[in-house]
TrEMBL record:
Domain Alkylated DNA repair protein AlkB homologue 8 N-terminal, first and last residues per copy: 202-237
UniProt GO MF annotations: 2-oxoglutarate-dependent dioxygenase activity; methyltransferase activity
Every Reverse transcriptase domain range: 106-195
UniProt name for this protein: Reverse transcriptase domain-containing protein
InterPro entries registered for this protein in UniProt: AlkB_hom8_N, DNA/RNA_pol_sf, RT_dom
PANTHER family membership: REVERSE TRANSCRIPTASE DOMAIN-CONTAINING PROTEIN
Amino acid sequence: LPFKSTSQDFGDEEINKLTSHFRPLLLSAGVDVDLIPDQWTILKAELYTAGFSQGTFEKTWPTVNRMLRHRCPDVLYLFDALLTIPARLCALPPLYILDTDDCRSTHPNCHLVKYADDTVLLSLLSGSSQHHRPALQEFVEWCDSSKLELNVSKTKDMVVTFCRRPRDPAASVTTIIHGTPVEVVEEYKYLGTTFDNLLKFSANTEEILRKCHQRLYLLRKLNSFGVSSSVMMTFYCAFLENIMTFSITCWFYSLSLQNRNRLQHTTSVCSKIVGLPVRTLAQVFYQQALRQAAKILHNPSHILHPAFQWLPSGRRLCCIS
C-alpha cells in the first residue's frame, strides 16, 4: 500500500464500531457489512494514491463517491448514512460517546463523566490520597494514543471541600498536562449549570435571576397588550419556568434560604402578572425528583440504582445516607 506502515490500521477500529452501531440500518439497506473492512482498506489506498496524504487532494466527496462507487459501495453507503444525519438530531454526541466508550478510569476513587467531548474527572481525595495525578495521567495517555488532543487552556481544576475551613486553592498541588499547568478555579459552568467549590450554587442562582429579569420585561409587555392569561401562562412556562427549573434536582436543596426566597419572589411576581397561580420551585423540585427516582429504580444499569434499597417490608425505601 502507498501509505506508511504506521497508518495501515488508521480508522479500522472506528469503522468497526460504526459498522456495529449501524448494523441494523445497513442490513435493511442491503449492505454487505462483512465487506466494509476490506473496502475501507481499498478506499484508503485510493485516497493516498490520489495525494490525500501530501495535502494535494482536490477532489470533492461527490467525485470520490462516483469514482469508487463500483469498488467500495458498502463502505461508501456507511459514510453517506453518516453525512446525511441532521446535526439538529444531536447525532454527533452519541457517535463521539461510542468512539470514546473504552475510555474508563481504573482507579476506585476516580470516575469519568463524559458527554460528547466534555469530560469531567471526579476524584475523591481523602487520607493519603491528595491528588488525582495517576487517574489524570491515564486519561491523558489514552487521549494521546487515540489521537485526541486535549485543550489545556479550557481545562479547569476545581477542589470541592466539605471541611469547615475551606482549602486554599493556591495550596493545592498544581495539575500539569503536557507541561502546561491547569488553572485552578472556584466556579465552573458545566452543561449549563455553574458549580462552585462549596456547592452553594450562588453563581448559578445569579445567572438564573439575570435571565429571568430579562424575560420579565417581555411578560409585562404581553400584559400591557391585553394578552389573555392562558397565553401568558404558556409564555411563562416556556421562557421563565423552564430557565428557573433547569437541572433543579441538582442544586435546589443546596441553595441558601436567601437564594431560595429570591427565586420564589420571581415566581410570585410572574404569578401576579399572569393573573394565575404558578407552581412553586419546591413543587417542581419534588415532581422532578420523584420522576428521576422512578427512572433510576426501573434502570438497574444506572449508577445510582444500588443506592435505592427497600425496607424488609418491601413497601418503602430506605433513607439514602
